[in-house]
Amino acid sequence: MTASDLVALSPLILLSATALVVMLSIAIRRHHGASATLALLGLAASFASLRWAASVTPRQVTGLLLIDGYTLFYWGVLLALAAAVVLLAYSYLEHQTGHQEEFYCLMLLATAGGLVLVASSHMASLFLGFEILSVSLYALIAYLHLQRLPLEAGVKYLVLAATSSAFLLFGMALLYSETGSMQLATLARFYMGAPNAALGAAGWAGTVLMLTGIGFKLAVVPFHLWTPDVYQGAPLPTTALVATISKGSVFALLLRWFHPAGSLAGTPVWWAFVIMAAASMLAGNLLALRQNNVKRLLAYSSIAHMGYLMVAFVAAGPLAVQAATYYLLAYVITILGAFGIMSVLCSGEEECCELEDYRGLFWQRPVLAAMFSAMLLSLAGIPLTAGFLGKFYVMAAGASSALWLLLFVLVASSTIGLYYYLRVLVVLFSSLPEDHVKVMLPRGRVPAGAGFSLAVLVILLFVFGLYPAPLWDLIRGISAGIG
Amino acid sequence: MFLLGLAGLLTRRNLIFTLMCVEVMLNASGLAFVAAGSRWGQVDGQVMFLFIVAMAAAEVSVGLAMVLQFHREHPTLDSDAGDEMRG
Amino acid sequence: MILLWLIAILILAGVLAAVAGRFNAAAPRVISLAALVLDLALCLGLWGRGLSSASRWSEELSWTWVPQLGIHFHLALDGLGLVLILLTMFLGIMAVLASWNGIQRSPGFFHFNVMWVLAGVTGVFLAVDLFLFYFFWELMLVPMYFLIAIWGYQRRIYAAVKFFLFTQISSLLMLIAMIVLVILHQRTAGFYSFDLQDLLATPLAPDMEMLLALGFLAAFAVKLPAFPFHTWLPDAHAEAPTAGSVILAGLLLKTGAFGMLRFVLPLFPHAVQRLAPLMMTLAVLGILYGAILAFAQNDLKRMVAYTSVSHMGFVLLGIFALNPIALQGVVVQMVSHGISTGALFVLAGALNERLHSRELRDMGGLWETMPMLSGVGLFFVMASAGMPGLGDFVGEFMVLLGTYQATPVLSALAALGMITGACYALRLAQKTFLGPNVHHSDFPDARWNERAIAVPMMVCLLWIGLYPQPLLNMIRPAIDNMPRQAVTARR
Amino acid sequence: MLNLLWLAPALPLTSAVLLAIFGSRWPRKLVSLAGVGSIGLAAVASMLVAWSFLTAPPPGNAFVLPLWTWMAAGSFRPEFGLYLDPVSLLMLLVVTFVGFLIHLYSTEYMRGDEGYARFFAYMNLFVASMLLLVLGSNLLVLYMGWEGVGLCSYLLIGFWYRDAANVRAANKAFLVTRIGDTAFAIGLFLLFTQLGTLDIQQLMQRAQSQWPAGSTLAIAAAALLLGGAVGKSAQLPLQTWLPDAMAGPTPTSALIHAATMVTAGVYLIARTHVLFTLAPEVQLVVAVIGAATLLMAACSALVQRDIKRVLAYSTISQIGYMFLALGLGAWSAAMFHFMTHAFFKALLFLAAGAVIQSLHHEQDMFRMGGLRRELPVAFWSFVIGGSALAGLPLLTAGFFSKDLILWQSWAGLNGSIWFWLCGMLGALLTSLYTYRLVFLVFYGTAKSHVSERPGLAIKLPLAVLCVLSIFAGYLDTPPHFGGVPRLSNFLNSTLPALEEVHVGPVITEVTTALTASLVFLAGFSLAYLLYYRRRVEQPAESALARFWAAGWGFDTLYSWIFVRPFVWLAEVNRRDIVDSLYTALASLTQASNGLLQRTETGHVRWYASGLAIGSAVFLGLVWWMR
Amino acid sequence: MAAVFYISSAVAVVATLLTITCRNAIHALLYLIVSLLAVAIDFFVMGAPFVAALELIIYAGAIMVLFIFVVMMLNMGEHAGETALDVFKPRAWAGPSLLALVLLAEIAALVSRQSAPLSGVEISSKQVGVALFGPYVIGVELASLLLTAGLLGAYHLGRKAVTREDEVHGIDTRQSRAVTGDPVVSAGAGRSSHAA
Fold this sequence. Notes:
The structure holds 5 protein chains of 5 kinds. By secondary structure, chain B is mostly helical. Chain B has one domain: Helix Hairpins (Orthogonal Bundle), CATH 1.10.287.3510. Chain B has helices at residues 2-11, 15-40, 44-73. In chain B, helix 1 (2-11) runs antiparallel to helix 2 (15-40) and helix 2 (15-40) runs antiparallel to helix 3 (44-73). Chain B is elongated. Chain C folds into 2 domains: 1-265, no CATH class; 268-491, no CATH class. Chain C is built from 20 helices and 2 strands. Chain E is mostly helical. Chain E has a domain at 136-196. In chain E, 81% of the residues lie in helices and 0% in strands. In chain E, helix 1 packs antiparallel against helix 2 and helix 2 packs antiparallel against helix 3 (49-74). Chain E is globular and about 50 Å long. Chains B and E meet through helix 1, helix 2 and helix 3 of B and helix 1, helix 2, helix 3, helix 5 and helix 6 of E.
């Protein structure tokens, strides 16, 4: 542990420290605004320290964490996402009874877990990051535990996440017993089939079992079943967190771990990924087809989107990592925006996530509805939005690796997907029923913080959709290190 | 043992049992790690086991707290009672 | 630069209209009209300046967009594009005029959508970068979707979704084909480029070329629409508001044909030759099938929609006849079909505004009380049936003539479309304007905006029908510039 | 002076456009002035042109007035030009002059109609289109006129649009002729593709030089053009539309469905006679069609009740004669008969119109009678016109023209006794039904009240046409009756001269003329016996009569073969069978959605099973692959 | 030594089996403790005394006590099995067992393709300690974060539960639900018999 190590770790340290500070501040005096502000400040400080950390990277900090450009990039993304979630959560929690402050603390911890995951280069750090994330999420999902649905979602998530952790651990153990190393980089060499490091059947079995754990977090078919229930039950900011930070960090890890093994093609694991990708795209979109709860709908759509991501992931070649990263970024921006808008709209005690609640939204809140439409269109991959470019890159990556089957599944399923996005759009723009007595969505001003973060997200959505060149360069730079 | 835990998890509907089964699975994984570490004569397996124990503790504490809450809503502790969200 | 302005004016006017619509209901339409007139003036100016014979493009604009993938913001104008842009602006004005009074609900957003569709269409006609083309191609869809889904008739949502899904799945296939083409190009040339000119030189294995051509054709055939992929069209046309139908029939369908002319023919000459018999057969089937279905319809707008299927069959036929006469006929047909069908949709909209029905059985004997509207209607019905002296005839005749040189049998079969075309045209006239006025309908005759629409459209059709030479001169260089092998190989 | 030619179509066209736009707001006088005046001026212009043409024939006896290039695409650059030669000059004069008379007549006939301006707009448009058809230097221009007259025919048949039957008749006329037009269009494609031009003169030259006689291409081209001609001229098998077309106002019937438009087919064949000469098989078919049609239509005319339908079938029959002449290679004879027919058939229709108008639009002959004294003008018109139609020897124009055809049917290039016999039989029938009409309408007891009598605007055209019907025949008399073949000579510069091949001792001009005269007398006597002496008060009711009256059942036949299957197909497929494919796809998707949704049970144990199943599957994959 | 290893392994497996099949929650817990003890012996045999001790202290000691505490608090020791009666119908366990067997077969097949000799090298607690605060120091820190998260979560969820317990209103709700037989619960129970 040298000073440079600490510098490299500074964002993580600052983040964890913030979590503790928030906890202590709660102990001293409960104040919602203060907690949120503290959390924001901590995130900002952590974000600022990225630059500092960049001065000493790339750097392997002990055996567990690898801090390089890729890590820092994802750290930045995760921290920014967390900040946006804080802003959204503030306006959401304002309207909830009960204690609000712990949310920030847990959220920061979850983010820290995500950071660890991204940086991990060792099974132990992988596992610990995984668990920090999970354990925080248990509580976050069931945060509004006086209501039935969040609690139910929490229980489900807990049981399943723990089970999946067990699978992950068992897989790790198998792999470890096969290879004798817990360094991911060493394992990657095994996958590549280095001459003196062929992987035996047990090693593959271990990998597959680990995939169960990872696949669970990513919610890809067939490990997706929990997704809708948890999305629906969890409070909106938590849902946003699950959809962005949790998935984003796990995927970043997966990308780093398997990418060096560019020649995975043809191995059982590669086939497993292909199957997961195809099945996720199809099943996710098909499941969402007639869903009437917007949160569940987005949950199913997230399954499909993970499938699209997998396409880029499966594709080898220089484009793959870049495409996956771009897509992931576009996706998290979009989905965070979507959940953010929902959380702004559903600022009552009850969440209003039924499709019917959104009927005629455009005529009441045109700006929010327009933003929501933009998010939906981005999810559907329509030009002008980041989602389109993301899909474009994914297709480019897939095409350059000649993954025809996957590409056709992608085309078919995104057409199916379009159907339900359009369903939502239709509802947003359809006329209000005549006997519209109950105003589902309260009018009123959008809180400044949430409004700001939404505006930023929408702007990013269009900037990344229209002028991707700088971001693309950045991604190319950071992915060069791992490719 | 891992698989017995899994089977139990899938079979038993009582949440307490479910949690126990998860513990069994985690424990089995820990056992596997220690065995693997022992195979290579390395200390890493045991370290991992320690982390697993820590995780199991955190998990159980949160889990049991949730079970308490769940019991308030569904006096049966039947995990299938929590199927309000589906479809 | 002027090319960018053509698009930018529309986009800005759309935004302005949306904003202005919140304060004043009349402002959006005035803004839209002004923008379109300005654009039309610009286009006429471009036309007046003449097409430079020296270079391939008479106007060009190229900015780097995504350098990593060789994507450029590359707009270019040739005669073909100019003709279609003129048509775009013209029909745009008509569409705005047609919905002058009919839009009560959120006129700002309505005109925003209209402007953006037109901007997308304009972009499609100008783009020579494949990516940019796709970008505009998709850009057209969303506002069109809104136009149908918000301001349409009863089954608008079904229609809008169907329209969107059909187009989307086919466009994605095209996107894949584009990407593959670019990647193949990169493998041989060593750099990424989405530019049409660069890609023209890509050597392709025959089977790969075929697959790629099919990918492109999928999108264009659905948009056109070619025979088995046409079923979105009646729904979309019938349910769209008048302006939507006009733009849909007049412009969006043309983008499909344009795409074939601009991309498929030059990029995949050999595959096109192999595909020609198949596509021409489909075209003939479409001509006859569309006409029979048009005859069968009881809904005025659906009927007109199916006539589009039939007419666009001629376009497809001409494209794959692969000779200069047919290709020029295709362009003439595109323009005149845009005008005549657009006018019929305006007419249907006008009737619907009065009768609140699109059903033929609610009509009949309208001549009695609205002789002017009926007379105008008859004019366009006859244009649609291919009456010589009007635009459609010139197009159809040249297409058939060109086709005859390629395959006499198909041409003769397609000529049967003239008979079936007469069948539906006569039925349309019979059920609406003529016959006894059983419903004793008594409605006001053509209003000022309807007259302002009808007169220029009639003049244009007559002009194209009697003296299409300026039009043909404009598109001639573009046709000649298509690689000779694609056009002449069959002769 | 010849350059004034463009005025002939332009004047009516201008008037038509003006009337269409402003007609409803103009006073009636102005409408009449524009409508009739424009045609009158066109007639004057044509006469000036004719005078100039005759006094100072242009080189080659043909004059071309190019206007502009219609469309140019590659080698395809049809000129929009006018072409004047003796044949088209004849047509031009007949069309403008007869047209003028009929327009004049219409000012009175259509007096009370609300669509007065509309009527004249259509009529003017018709004249313009017809002139374009006649004068077009290019087959494409001709085609444009061809379609234009079809359109006007449609508009005028359906002029009284409130009656659905009229609209149906109009549709039928348009559609049936459209079938022929399509064949014509395909013929154009073929000609252009093979010969590289559509200019009529060039086309004829190239055909002559490039195609050997009897070549397949020539046959195909001629057959396709014949298709067009058959449709327009209401010959077998596309004759069914004409009788129904009588639904239009009577002046329309006179102008379009008797004098001018229906003879366009004859004109077309005459124009492109080179092709037909190159395709003798087709030419023979033309003759056979002509002969068959003339007999069939004459039989039908015999049993009609409706006065206009009699005349309609008579028209079909007379055009049959023209086709017969064309088929025989007697080109100028056909044109001669066209001219005289234009006069006397217009006269008959106009006279019939006068009768009909006087009787409150009563058209059933069996409800007329004894009108001889009430309507003397109409009576004498009928007598003169009818005699010309029936071929009253020596006195009437119809005798000379028909005689020429009959003579040629035997003596001509392709003549045979069978054609001759057909022609004679037709002449007998013609005479019979003509006088049947005259006796039924003008003799016997009066059965209806004459409400109004024709005025000057009706009488004057009738008078002029009476004169023409009598004297036009002297333009071209056979050798034994004066021997002044002016018309034939005049047309000879364009059309091949008549040839007399089968001249023998029995087969002479004189015998034919005598036979024809006898046949005329026989027909007249029969009619006199049947309809004057034994006044038949009811139409024949035999099965054969019904069959004939229904136009030999062609309507029913076509209805079963074409119309019903088409309508059935359309109705069965109204919802578009192709769409069900996509609907099925959509349902499949929905179904799989339902299936998948059942996996989301909400039970945590099942979800955990998902994890286990997934792992099992992937482990199986590993097992299988390793 | 090998005999001890296999005997204790067998004990562990049997005890686990009993755990998951036992009706009474307390009994099940006791079987689980037996199983954990057996595993501890295994650890010891494998040369990991430190871990074996931890297994006893933390697992069998701390965690199981938590379980017992909750079970007793919820007062469900005796009749917990009632709702789980149908667990013993074949259709309830056949599916999961089959699945588990398939997995077992697959893992066994895959693992058995290689030899897995135990090295039998003993690793002292000191070595473990050194590793923990050497290369794994970040891991330890992270584990502390993990525990913090667990602590916070349990605190948040649990604390509110207690406060609510005290509210009369809350008790009323619970009682009324118990009396009327919450439709959701009964429906869930009814369906679950088909679910497996």
